[in-house]
Design brief:
Elements (H helix, E strand, L loop, with lengths): L1 E6 L5 E7 L2 E8 L5 H16 L8 E5 L5 H15 L5 E5 L1 H10 L7 E7 L4 E8 L5 E7 H9 L5 E4 L7 H4 L5 E4 L7 H13 L26
Parallel strand pairs: 1-4, 4-5, 6-9, 9-10
Antiparallel strand pairs: 1-2, 2-3, 6-7, 7-8
Helix pairs in contact: 1-2
Length: 226
């Protein structure tokens, strides 16, 4: 099972190719705002390094957000371009589910798991995963709201994600809270491993290559009257 994974939604870019559990190639560009210029050359270089072509790939997985509006559009456009006219199956992976998957490999004892992603402007993208429910809620909140949310819980809770650093000092001593302040950056190699695990367990994955936007766009339509 060969998987091509790419991420451009997080103000950086990375590409990985895996065969089963083995990562065959990994490329990354950490300079912010360089996704459009670097993503296709990175994909081509990764394929060459892995000794594969697009016809050898079974699945293409791409992050669909939340994150940079421009980055999300770049990644999804590239993914759709590759998928068009091929037999590759497309999979969209949210930053929430990827962060949750990685965090729960480390933390097992919880009733609710809070993923906080950096949304800039003093805000956090937040999704709550309930261990006893398939329903999860996402929202855009400020730091104080996130802190109050955690303080209000009496059950066993845990949290992780790139936004955790902004509230860590305020919540680190909560007795019912487990913290995982690592895994701040999304890497395509982890997307490969996540997708492979889900497919192996025959879990459902999102095959609709659409963006996950939570914050409304800054540009607004103005109506003019005469």
């Amino acid at each position: 099972m060969k998987i091509l994974a790419l991420d451009t939604a997080n103000n950086s870019a990375s590409v990985a190719i895996s065969d089963g559990e083995k990562i065959l190639a990994y490329k990354e560009e950490l300079r912010p705002g360089m996704q459009a210029e670097t993503i296709m050359p990175m994909i081509e270089t990764a394929l060459e390094e892995a000794g594969l072509s697009y016809t050898s790939i079974d699945y293409l997985a791409v992050t669909n957000g939340p994150g940079s509006f421009t980055g999300i559009r770049i990644g999804l456009s590239v993914a759709k371009g590759i998928l068009f006219g091929t037999n590759i199956k497309g999979i969209a992976v949210s930053n929430f589910e990827l962060s949750y998957y990685r965090a729960t490999q480390q933390i097992k004892n919880y009733d609710k798991f809070y993923i906080f992603l950096n949304a800039y402007r003093g805000q956090l993208y937040t999704q709550i995963f309930d261990k006893n429910s398939d329903v999860s809620l996402s929202s855009l909140i400020n730091y104080d709201e996130a802190i109050n949310m955690l303080f209000s819980q009496e059950c066993s809770i845990a949290c992780a994600g790139s936004g955790l650093e902004f509230i860590f000092n305020y919540v680190q001593h909560l007795p019912n809270l487990s913290l995982l302040p690592r895994f701040a950056r999304v890497k395509a190699m982890h997307i490969c491993k996540y997708v492979y695990t889900k497919l192996l367990l025959k879990h459902s994955l999102n095959n609709i290559i659409h963006p996950l936007y939570i914050r409304p766009p800054d540009a607004k339509i103005k109506l003019f009257t005469t």
